[in-house]
Amino acid sequence: MKILEERSGCVKYLDLDTNEETWLNKKIFEKKYKHLITENHLKMPTVPQEQAMTKEERNIPISKQKKHHSIVGFSKDREPSDFYPTPREGTIALLEREKFEGSIWECASGDGSMSKVIEEQYKDVYSSDVRTDEDVYGEKGIDFLKTNKKFNNIITNPPYRYAKEFVEHSLKYADKKVAMLLKLVFLEGKSRYQLFQNSPLKTVYVFCKRLPIYKKGIKTKNSGLICYAWFIWDKNYEGKPIIEWIL
Ligand SMILES: C[S@@+](CC[C@H](N)C(=O)[O-])C[C@H]1O[C@@H](n2cnc3c(N)ncnc32)[C@H](O)[C@@H]1O
Questions:
Q1: Which contiguous run of DSSP H or E holds residue 219?
Q2: Ligand 1 and 228: CB distance under 6 A
Q3: 156 & 43 share domain
Q4: What pTM was computed for the model?
Q5: Nearest CA to 123 among 108, 137, 104?
Q6: Mind listing the pLDDT tens digit for each residue in 135-172?
Q7: 230-247: per-residue pLDDT in tens?
Q8: Which structural domain, as residue segments, surrounds residue 19?
Q9: Fewer C-beta within 10 Å: the chain N or C terminus?
């Protein structure tokens, strides 16, 4: 959690996991989230009295409010390339439930944590990442969102800030399945409503246990608290999406 602004006994905070901004009574906020805030984040910017929020203003949705100190977008704390390697069990959970025919592209492969597990079961796997450092597994310097390579299937754990773009782009270039490991909250949000209405989402496999996904793979105090799910789009599927649980 990151506090963005404080006015009239309320705080506006950014949920670093979902990137959602919310106003909440300061006392309730502190009670609920104190353990999730780092020291830096507690340094709240104060707002001059003339900018204090009126009762009416507080009822206006964030998107329509005037922004004073608002930091829209991603926190500086977020890993710049969003490198959060997938633990082996995360990929295995997918491969145990879904079969893939033809070629597979892991289009944001990072250090290959996911690709290497897929390769244990499939031969035709291509891996790439936008990064160019020596830790990258597969082809370096490939910005997925700027490519137009065609594959049968695309499987990845995309950078969360571009999750929607990755899904949309994948749906253009994969002619069989798209499997994305995403935060469960990807299901909500107005901007994604249209995407779900207009795409062949087949199954959402929800992890009952939190997957140990950490920034650069390094465990910290507040990491690993997020609920993830595999979202599977299938170009041959015409029904409503199904929810299943991974125990
Ligand atoms: C959440 S990590 C997942 C890494 C890997 N897929 C895994 O599951 O272990 C996201 C990866 O996306 C890469 N990435 C970010 N933007 C990208 C882009 N536009 N095109 C390709 N890769 C990108 C990052 O460098 C990072 O390695």
A1: none
A2: no
A3: no
A4: 0.72
A5: 104
A6: 999 999 999 999 999 999 999 999 988 999 999 999 99
A7: 999 999 999 999 999 999
A8: 2-64
A9: C
